[in-house]
Amino acid sequence: MSLEKSIQKRYDFIILFDVKDGNPNGDPDAGNLPRIDAETGNGLITDVCLKRKIRNYVQLKKENQPPYSIFVKEKAVLNNTIDKAYAESGIDLNEPPKDPTDGKKREKNGHGQGKEVDEAKEYLCKNYFDIRTFGAVLTTGANAGQVRGPIQFTFARSIDPIVTLEHSITRMAVTTEADAIKQGGDNRTMGRKFTVPYGLYKAHGFISAPLAKQTGFNTDDLALFWEALKNMFEHDRSAARGLMGMRKIFIFEHSSEMGNCPVQQLFDAIEISTTNSPPRDFSDYLISVKTDTIPENVILIEK
């Protein structure tokens, strides 16, 4: 990676997005009910869910081609991809290591050692956008080490408590002939659907310049990430998710790689209050910024 494209600054950010009459992130251990904080009633969305939408956007935008391929994608076999990294690097896992400093022969199940691990890891970071962005555990088969991603998310949490509504739905068809016989030709299938009437969610994110240099995440990747973040819901539509959309992105750009102040000071500068209860629209919220609490060497960018 050229030094001209390396990231020279730390970034922290807040995203605000909402859902109306949909289920933003069902919990499979709770019958796919919307995730919720049992003590406060606030809605939750996992960081994994948010990263998934970023991956999906980049996969659609770049058609899953290097250097923007996606490692963790639907129906992927991750160990096959790691094996491919060794093959593309010209390393045969069935042969003893060529470099005697790499130690004894590999185990029967085949694991890279020493410099070979670094070569495989470098190949994967270079070709897979989500590895150099979010990191990955690459030790599940042929060992390619672990990658600490420069971009991380927190869970998203709704500003106010949410309520989950349960709806009965009917399909005017059955699956099998046997079901049709049981119903005497009525052919109806009943089901359940869960929605949140409205919820405004807030999540926090962090971008580390030193970790970006380790994975090769550069300024082009950063521009693509901001684009994907802004549009992450635009190609993720479904009847189950209702109306979801990105409302606000607050980016705090530091003037140095290590940052200029604690992140809590920056995040506390964004204040959100409810003007109507219960809230049912984004217009029911007032968002203000305490600019006097943001240091001069940190720039606030709103998208």
What does this 3D model show about the protein?
Helix 2 (78-88) packs across helix 3. The chain has one domain. It is flat. It starts with 10 loop residues before the first strand and ends with a strand. The chain contains 8 helices and 14 strands. The protein is 25% helix and 29% strand. The chain has 303 residues and is an alpha+beta fold. The strands form 4 sheets. Strands 1, 4, 7, 8, 9, 10, 11 and 14 form an 8-stranded antiparallel sheet that branches.
Short summary:
With 303 residues, the protein is of the alpha+beta class. Helix content is 25%, strand content 29%.
The portion of residues assigned to helices is 25-40%
Mean pLDDT comes to 92
Beta fraction: 25-35%
Largest sheet: 8 strands, antiparallel
User: How many separate domains?
Assistant: 1
Instruction: Give the oligomeric state.
Output: single chain
The helix/strand class is: alpha+beta
Low-confidence stretches: none
Radius of gyration of CA atoms, rounded to a whole number: 23 Å
Number of strands: 14
The number of helical elements comes to 8
Report the principal-axis shape: flat
Alpha carbon gap, first and last residue: 28 Å
N-to-C order of helices and strands: EEEEHHHHEEEEEHEHHEHEEE
Question: What brief labels describe this structure?
Answer:
alpha+beta; eight-stranded antiparallel sheet; 303 residues; single chain; 8 helices; two-stranded antiparallel sheet; flat
Question: What is the fold's blueprint, element by element?
Answer:
Layout: E1 11-22, E2 26-27, E3 33-34, E4 42-45, H1 47-62, H2 78-88, H3 115-127, H4 129-134, E5 135-137, E6 146-148, E7 151-153, E8 156-161, E9 165-171, H5 177-182, E10 189-207, H6 209-215, H7 219-230, E11 243-254, H8 263-267, E12 270-274, E13 285-289, E14 298-302
Antiparallel strand pairs: 1-10, 1-11, 2-3, 4-8, 5-6, 7-10, 8-10, 9-10, 11-14, 12-13
Helix pairs in contact: 1-7, 2-3
